[in-house]
């Protein structure tokens, strides 16, 4: 069985394909629609977008044109980080559904606990308001599972203490050398599936010497090692690619890493110099 049809089971019983196709920095238009269509034709069944990416329209068109039964596909989108009121969130969920052209989304996440402009200031009250809108949309059948993204331990605790539904997913920055062990363990210990965004460190990981040596030993590419690493940590990778060769290669993960290789990959230096990592160990 291809890794693309293997699934994790979320805490509400919904199954989620173990590898998702990332679409950040893919603009609305034909290029993105073609990349998603290519991914679906190559067997991907899980696509990750966000209201903030501005490409829900292209993702939705590719999904609807694929000819694949809707129940076989898993579509995630996200509530923009600055939307922190219940009414604002309800309106934005409707917008996402309209842009995607779908009756329901499989997963909807609060994109971040803080507005992007103030990444160190979580809005606890706003997150609870947004969460209640997600809970309501879930109850109404508009979203099959609800979750969070970029939430550190105190942000998760806020939802656990005051929300009615335990988040099904926390999607966080995660790659070899940057695995946020405190946030990852906390989320997993509380029943959330952790999703790895930027599993290739947005490309920064691919020239690292150690990962290249491990890839060479298995006859695969550094990207495949980085994606396989996530799966072996029970973390769900969301690799993004536009070239067909990359989209295809990223789904060929039929090899195993040894405990020594996993340790070496965990110990890599951080290779994503371009990004602020926020206060991700809070
Ligand atoms: N929740 C959040 O706040 C958040 C934030 C960031 C990202 N995300 C999600 O996570 C997804 C992935 O993260 P990301 O976009 O930062 O990037 P990534 O998946 O870590 O890396 C993508 C880069 O790696 C290249 N690449 C992909 N496969 C390759 C291969 N087999 N060999 C060599 N190069 C390869 C891509 O090139 P080509 O495109 O040229 O093929 C692209 O430049 C996003 O698209 C998004 O869905 C979520």
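Q: What amino acid sequence fits the structure above?
A:
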């Amino acid at each position: 069985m291809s890794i693309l049809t293997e699934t994790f089971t979320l805490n509400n019983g919904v199954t989620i394909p173990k590898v998702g196709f990332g679409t950040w920095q893919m603009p609305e238009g034909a290029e993105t629609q073609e990349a998603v269509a290519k991914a679906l034709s190559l067997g991907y069944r899980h696509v990750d977008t966000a209201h903030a990416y501005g490409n829900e329209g292209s993702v939705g068109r590719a999904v609807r044109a694929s000819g694949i039964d809707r129940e076989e596909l898993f579509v995630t989108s996200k509530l923009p980080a600055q939307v922190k009121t219940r009414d604002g969130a309800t309106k934005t969920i409707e917008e996402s559904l309209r842009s995607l052209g779908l009756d329901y989304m499989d997963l909807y996440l609060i994109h971040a606990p803080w507005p992007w402009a103030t990444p160190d200031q979580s809005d606890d009250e706003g997150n609870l308001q947004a969460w209640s809108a997600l809970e309501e949309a879930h109850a109404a059948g508009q979203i099959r599972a609800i979750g969070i993204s970029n939430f550190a331990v105190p942000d998760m605790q806020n939802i656990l203490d005051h929300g009615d539904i335990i988040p099904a997913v926390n999607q966080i920055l995660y790659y070899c050398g940057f695995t946020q062990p405190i946030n990852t363990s906390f989320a997993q210990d509380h029943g959330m599936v952790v999703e790895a965004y930027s599993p290739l460190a947005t490309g920064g990981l691919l020239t690292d010497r150690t990962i290249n040596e491990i890839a060479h030993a298995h006859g695969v590419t550094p990207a495949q090692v980085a994606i396989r690493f996530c799966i072996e940590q029970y973390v769900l990778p969301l690799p993004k690619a536009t070239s067909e060769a990359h989209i295809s290669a990223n789904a060929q993960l039929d090899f195993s890493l040894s405990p020594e290789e996993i340790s070496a990959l965990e110990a890599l230096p951080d290779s994503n110099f371009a990004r602020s990592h926020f206060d991700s160990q809070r």
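Q: And what stands out in the fold?
A: The longest strand covers residues 143-149.
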